[in-house]
Structure formats: C-alpha cells, structure tokens
C-alpha cells in the first residue's frame, strides 16, 4: 500500500485534534502518578492487549498515568492494530483519556526478498505482519470478538510527533513502554534528537541475549522487525531496561492461569471473554508471557529476581543474522554508550498473582 493511500485512509479515520489526556491537571489524582506512553504493535488480547488492560486497571488504582497509546506495525499491519487499539480504549472505558496515535506502517529499513528467504528457512518462526497480506481498506480488517469501536477515532497527530510533544511537555517524567518494534521512537529521535535527554527511561520487551530467537534463529520479533530502529535508540543516552526472550522463555502461560482468567464464573468481563478467545489452548502450544512483564517491572523492579547488564548492539543486516543482539562487557564502537540492564529471571508466582488480578477486575474501569 502506498504511503499516500495510508495517509488518506488514516486521515479519514482521524479525530480532528481535540483529544488528549486531561488526567494531568493539578486537580487530578493521576497528575502525580508515573507517566507512561505505551508504544505497541497492538493486538486485541494477546500480550499487547493484555498489557493495555492491566495498565488501565493500574490507572484506576492511581498507580500509573497512561498518557497515550501509540501503534506501530509489528505483530500485525498498522490498520488492523489501530482498529484493535481503538476498540481497546472503548472496552476499558478510557477513550476520553487515552488517545490512540497511528505511527509507522513499515520499518526504517527492510528487504522483503530477504524476509521471504528467512521465513522459508525458519518455517516455525514468528514474523508478525509479514506472515499475512497487508490490508488496504477497512473492509479487510478482522473485528475484535466484541466488535469494532463504535465512536472512538484516531488522534490526528502522528505517533512520533505525539512522543516528541509529550516528552517536551513533561521533561524527564515520561517512561516509554516499548513493546513493539521501536520505529515510532526512532523516528521521534531522528526528528527531535533533543528529546533523548528528556525521556525518563525506556522499558522494552524485545531481544534475545543468550537464547534462540522466535523469528529467525537468532532474532526476537520486536527487535528483528526493525533492527535499525533498535540500534538508533540503543545508541542514545536514555536510561533503558530490557525484558528479553531470555526471561520470557521462563514465564509460561499455564492452563491453571488461563482458567483463572477465562473461566472464573464470578469474574466474567469483556476482557476475560476476549482473553478466552485469543488465548484458547495457548498453554498447550508452549505459549510464554511477553509484554505484560514490562508493567510489573516498571511498577516494581523487584519482580526481576535476576538481571544482567551489558553494552548492547544489534545486527541490522538483512539475512539470517538479522536482529541478533550483540552483548559486550566492555565499551565497543557502535554499541550502547552505557550498560543496559536486562532481566533474566522473574518472580513468576508473584507476577501471576498480579496478572490474574488485573485481568479479572471489573470493566470498564473507573478512573480517579
């Protein structure tokens, strides 16, 4: 799909710029809560959708102030993801507080021929949007289980511009939960490099440090999808922490956890029903927990029971080493200028108590 066509389609779906988060006025209980932007390759109730539901429940408790939801192609193509995201803000009842901002539809650089070769060489690999045709119009989108959004529209501002404006509005206060390919964030840094000193921190789900990849043999999807964007962000001085496959491989979704969310007769909501459909039998295919670990770690880093730190770089070449993370104990030209913490072990029992609780709370939320 041509960028012009996407721009026209997005404009037709966009809200004429009145949106914005009003939870930061001095009178709001959320004004002093930790500020977050969720930058996501969104899905209805896979890991990104679960993270959004959990984060908005934490908003209802006054523990997190989610300023906006920015969307980037990764798990799926942008048009599908933004439709899922618009429904998510309605489902959770935060459509008047949390705006949805559409971002990059393609990585900073990509080689489709190489991607197809990698797919053929890794038939069990997960390649996200590249595994399906790109939709070009609304009629080609798949509705969430509870239907498309009925009234909520995209914000008019592009995701990267929203990140720039918000970070400048709240200097050194905003954490980016980077749970998709970081294309939007890299574009923001390219447009406005001065924001690097204004972002409080980045918490990623991405990368594979010392374990096999889940896309090609060495690359984790989020970082494999746009390694140039990853490298762009790693090379800044922004404080960064990573939830890589090294830890998510050790946090499996079990049938017991699934049942406590999907099949509790006393706690049925739009979230648990969508969760039941999206994750049916996931536990039988060795599905692990991914993006949702970021919000636990963000709210309390002691959820991580073991971490390591290193100077990080990533292979940006097209081919079987695309997305491979390079881990160094000493400074190396091209790698991150400071050591970056990455998590290798999680307190699973404590995490699942939080996970089950937040995903089974009443919906829609009531914000303070």
TrEMBL record:
Pfam families, alphabetized: IU_nuc_hydro
GO BP terms, alphabetized: purine nucleoside catabolic process
Inosine/uridine-preferring nucleoside hydrolase domain ranges (all copies): 36-353
The entry's keywords: Glycosidase, Hydrolase, Signal
Domain of life: Bacteria
InterPro entries reported for this sequence: Inosine/uridine_hydrolase_dom, IUNH, Ribo_hydro-like
Gene Ontology cellular component list: cytosol
Region forming the signal peptide: 1-16
Sequence intervals crossing the membrane: none
Stored Gene3D superfamilies: Ribonucleoside hydrolase-like (3.90.245.10)
GO MF annotations, alphabetized: purine nucleosidase activity
Official protein name in the record: Inosine/uridine-preferring nucleoside hydrolase
Native source species: Caballeronia sordidicola
